[in-house]
Each structure stands twice: as C-alpha cells, then as structure tokens.
Amino acid sequence: MEAFGEYLARIDHAEHRERMEKVLAWVMEKFPKLEPKIAWNQPMFTDHGTFIIGFSIAKHHLAASPEREGIIQFSDEIMQAGYSHSKMLVRFPWDRPVDFSLLEKMIEFNILDKEEYSTFWRK
Q1: Rounded to the nearest 5 degrees, what angle is found at the Cα of 88, between the Cα atoms of 55 and 30?
Q2: 45 contacts 3 by C-beta, under 8 angstroms
Q3: The CATH number of 2-113 is which of 3.30.70.3270, 3.40.630.30, 3.30.360.10, 3.90.1150.200?
Q4: Rounded distance, CA 30 to CA 115, Å?
Q5: CA–CA separation, 68 vs 87, rounded Å?
Q6: CA of 90: how far to CAs of 49, 80, 116, 119, in Å?
Q7: Which of 31, 65, 67, 73 could form a disulfide with 89 if both were Cys (CB 3.0 to 4.6 A apart)?
Q8: For residue 2, what pLDDT is reported?
Q9: pLDDT tens digit string along 43-99?
C-alpha cells in the first residue's frame, strides 16, 4: 500500500478513502504480480509495463477503468449488476458495495488479453 499512501492521504472524505483503500488492498492481495503505481494522479496497476486497471474518485462513485475493451467485454454484466458505465469506466456508487467478482473478471481479462502487449495502452 506504500505506493498509494500519499494519494490516499489526500482523500478528504473518510468513507471514500476507506473504500478506495479496501479496493486497492484487494487488488494487491488478489493479483500480487501486478505493479501498483500512481500515474495521471490516479492509482493504477500494470503488468510488464502495460496498463491493466486504474481507479479514481468522483462525488457519487468510485470509478474503475479497465480500458474500453474491458468495458465492451463486460458491459452486460456491469448493467446486470446494477452499475452504470461510460466507454472507459465503471461507476461503483458509494452507497452500494463493490462487486469484487466483476472487478476480478475485468482484471483477469486484461491480464490475459494484454500478455503479449509491449505498449502501455492498447492500440
């Protein structure tokens, strides 16, 4: 969690900070080979130098960004779980629990789909 200490300390809302910390700790525990880092002022995880997933905080939700392909792949499941999404992110409202099984699927998809990538982003 050391990589995210300064970022977490800047989150004013205690519940939002706790939720973000819980999600980041879960990713680190579930996917220990992913590298935690801060880029573009957001916590994210990479694998062999390629982006896997990033997180951000908004007024009404915690956002997870698995890139556009991750959204396309899981759009139906995201909607069935009762979450909304844009082209690039899933919105996990503060008043609802995070669906960690859905988050796990999105991360696993990106790890497998991008295992041959040598660039940070998909082309």
Answers
A1: 40
A2: no
A3: 3.90.1150.200
A4: 18
A5: 6
A6: 23, 13, 25, 23
A7: 65
A8: 85
A9: 999 999 999 999 999 999 999 999 999 999 999 999 999 999 999 999 999 999 999
What's the length of the chain? 123
| pLDDT at residue 1 tops 80 | no
Tally Cβ neighbours within 10 Å of residue 36.
16
Q: How do the domains of the chain map onto residue ranges?
A: 2-113
Burial class (CB in 10 A: 0-12, 13-18, 19+), 57: buried
Chain position carrying tokens 């990713």: 27
Report the pLDDT averaged over residues 23-34. Answer: 98
Contacts (Cβ under 8 Å, ≥6 apart) of 108: none
